[in-house]
Amino acid sequence: MQHLFWSCGYRRARILIALASAVVCTVPLQADVFRGQVVDDLTDIPLEGAIVELRLTPDAETPDILVLADPFGFFETDEAVASTVYTATAKHPAYVDETITFTQDVPRKTEHFRMTPRVDLPGGPDANVFDLYFQIADTTSYVELVDFPIVARQYLSAVGGGSVRTEATASNGNGAAVIRGLTTGFYEFEVNAAGDPAHYAGSELLP
Q: Could you report the per-residue pLDDT of 149-160, keeping only the tens digit for each?
């Protein structure tokens, strides 16, 4: 029921609705492309899974545009509006957030993010960093299980190791989930809480 595998992907569904009227004609704002790459500032390694958030209001809690970096650290969105000023922030659990401000002054705007490793990670900034993927499915029908809570607890070692941190997520519409920015250590996993009929627990040692 719980699998450790390396996989990646980003799919965005879009619904387009066309409205026609013999009386009123509305011209939408021009949408341009904002693209770039996210890399480790020390090693130049691309940062798969980094999130790039664009905001019209810098302190807004919710981003206006959100895009995910691919396995080569590249990202691209065609939702940017021409001549608009954005605050863009690149985020990754193992790195310090990187923020820039830019104006969408060309049809294809390119900006790159160089992210600094966090010094407070277990093992320090030179620690190996992992992305752990889960696929949650019914063992009989193989139907993907959606919105199943997943908790990962990290310990310094498998026996007698002190607790390092706890990360939580949930399976998406495809029964998949990912926890990013994990470092070397022993991990215990739970799918659903103890006592739930669909509870599952396991463990994994990340080298």
A: 999 888 888 887
